[in-house]
Structures are given as C-alpha cells and as structure tokens.
Here is the input.
Amino acid sequence: MAPEAAGLGRREGRSVMREHHNTDYGRLIVRGADRPGIVSSVSGVLTEQGANIVSLDQYSTDPSGGRFFQRTVFHLEGLSARFDQLKAALDQKLTHELGLEFRLVEAKRRKRAAIFVSKADHCLLDLLWRVQRDEIAMTVPMVVSNHPDLGDAVRQFGIPYFYIPVNKNNKSEAEKEQLNLLKGNVDLVILARYMQILSGEFLDEVGVPVINIHHSFLPAFMGAGPYQRAKERGVKLVGATAHYVTEDLDEGPIIEQDVIRVSHRDTVEDLQRKGADVERLVLARAVTWHCDDRVIRDGNTTVVF
Here is the structure.
C-alpha cells in the first residue's frame, strides 16, 4: 500500500512528492515576523545560487504584523558540496537583513529516530513496517523499552532493543541510562505508547524533539481504562492525537488528530481495536510529516504544510 493510500501522503488533498528519494534536493524552512518581500528574497538567494524551486508553501497569521512561515523544496546540482555556501548566503539575507529564522536540510539525509515503547506493539510495529517499506524518511537506530516483551519482534527488523526497567525508585537513574544511549545518536524520539511520563530534566537534556501518541479521550478519560469508561459513557467517536512533548503533560503542540465513529454495538475490545487503528495511523502521519520537515512549531501550536 502506497503512503498516499494509507493517508500518509495527503495534505489537503494533494499528493506529497517523496523528496528523500531524490539526490540534490534540499528543503528550506523559514519563519519569523511577516513583512513584504520575504518570498522574493528567498527565491532570489536560491536563484543566485543556481537552485531551481520545485515547490513552495507559505502561510501568514496576519499580513499586518503577523507571523510568517514558509517551506521551500528546491533542486541544486551538487548540493552537498555547495551546502555551506548556500547556507552562508541565506544567513546573510534572511538572518542579518530580514531578522528571520531558517533551517536548511538535505532531503536525502534521513532523521534518526529512537522509538520508546512499553508493552503495546501496534504503533511500534506499524512504524517499523513503514520504515522497512521506505514510506517514512527515517532510520531507527534503537528501540528502548521499560519491558522486555517486544524484544524478539523488534530484533526481526535488525534493530537493537534496549530494556531499561523504570519504577518510582529508579526513574532518575533509568532516564540517565536512556540519555546516554540517545546522546549524539538520534534526531527524534518517538513515544509509541510508552507508558511512562518523561521528567522535565529528561526533556531538557535530550536535545531533540519528542513526539507522543495518545487516545483523544484526554482529558475526559485520563488514567487507566479509558476505553472501559468510554464504553460506559456511550461515546460515539474514538480517536487519537499526536503531539510534541513538553513538560506540561499532554499539552504540547498538536501535529495530527483523527477519529472514527463507533456505536453502542461496539464492545470494549472493539473500541480498543478501532482506537489502535487510529493511533497508529495518526502517529505515522505525524512522524512522516516531521521527517519531511513539514511541521513548524510556533509556541504551543504548529503549522503543517
């Protein structure tokens, strides 16, 4: 099944080109205070450097005093060799002259993602399957878990599995061990139903974005047994939310959400199964878009191109 068929490649009805399959493609992400001439300035620098713009998406919160966001995909022959020169030219124009922030990446450089998991395997295995099929532009150098249960399943993908027990007495030591594994080795951490709350100290030290998935019953059905309580309340929709993790529990910037309709005929097991389907698709979308540099954080919200 292609990414588009699975719902991973659609942004407002448009198919997404898999830029990571193409050599010499780059992505330029720009954000800052809106003002006239930004698009022209970006295009001008890229043109002067010999780049050809393939696609360009932009958004402004308000044309007068608002915030500006832009994602540009371009082709530049010999990009790797010319990367520093292009970055210096963009820095002079965008940073020093226009006061904007920018990020320049080579599309072929895949994000390195560590996946944290507990006992539920549906999100984990779905991500590993999609990576194996080259549907997500990332590599997975490790899976980290507070339980040993999924080790054999992960090793079948040729990925190291690190079992680090976590309890109320050793949480600080466990997080230090996790951080030692992650340091310098990953660009992203994915919580694929990792049933532990990361401390503020961990989030301060990890130095890379962390993406989480949870059921959309929050905050109405917080804690254990959300599907049982949802059944008792007669809910008509179940869903999931993928978001960046912050120290404020489940309050981080939202990347993607989705729901599926259920009825009184559905058992608790039906709700769990349907909820798992939504969770894995929502997480896969969020991770795919992050790895394709489509998500721009702005305070506690996001712009997703």
